[in-house]
Amino acid sequence: MKMIVAYIRHEAFEPIRTELLELGFPSLTVTDVKGSGRQRGITERYRGAELTNYLRPKIKIECVVDDGDLAVIVDTILKHGRTGAVGDGKVFVLPVEEAYRVRTGESGVDILQAHPDSNGAFAK
Ligand SMILES: Nc1ncnc2c1ncn2[C@@H]1O[C@H](COP(=O)(O)OP(=O)(O)OP(=O)(O)O)[C@@H](O)[C@H]1O
Ligand SMILES: [Mg+2]
To answer: Which atom of ligand 1 is nearest to the CA of 36?
Structure first.
C-alpha cells in the first residue's frame, strides 16, 4: 500500500477528482494548505510598494492505494495538474503499513477504495 500526497493548484482538483471517480478511486482526503516551492513565493507591487507573499494557496490531496493502482492515479494527477508554469505542484509517494475500516474492523488493501461488485456497482 502507498499514500500519494499531492500539492496542486485549486483549478486542477475538479478534473482530477472527476477522472479518479470514473476510474473507481473515490476515496481521498483534501485540505486547503499554503506552501512555498523553490521560487519562495511571489512578489507583487501594490501602490508603489513591493510585497512578497512567501506562501501560496494549494490543495493537498491524500490518497491511499494498492501498489498496483499507484501509476494510473499518479498519471491522472500529473496530467490534470500540469500547466507548464512554475507552481504546478509536487507529488510524493509514501509507504503505508496497514489500513483498517473502522465500521467493520476489516483490514488490508481491499478496504482502500470502492471495488465494484460483479455487477459493476459500487458499495453503498
Ligand atoms: N519538498 C517539498 N515538501 C513539501 N511540500 C512541497 C515541497 N515542494 C513543494 N511543496 C509544496 O508544493 C507547492 C508547489 O510547489 P512548486 O510547484 O512551486 O514546486 P517547485 O519545486 O518550486 O517547482 P516549480 O519550479 O515548477 O514551481 C508548494 O507551495 C508546497 O506547498
Ligand atoms: Mg515553485
So the answer is: 29
Strand order in the sheet with 89-95: 29-35, 56-65, 2-8, 89-95
pLDDT at 43: 83
Q: Are 116 and 29 in contact (CB under 8 A)?
A: no
**Confidence band for 54, pLDDT divided at 50, 70 and 90:** confident
Residue pair 78/12 in contact by the 8 Å Cβ criterion: no
User: Is residue 7 classed as helix, strand or coil in its secondary structure?
Assistant: strand
Per-residue pLDDT at 121 exceeds 90: no
Distance 9 CA to ligand 2 centre (A): 11
Nearest CA, atom 10, ligand 1: 37
As a CATH number, domain 2-111 is 3.30.70.120
Q: Rounded to the nearest whole angstrom, what is the distance from the C-alpha of residue 58 to the centroid of ligand 1?
A: 10
Kindly tell me if the per-residue pLDDT of 84 is higher than 90. yes
Cell of 30: 483534501
How much distance in Å is there from the Cα of 99 to the middle of ligand 2?
33
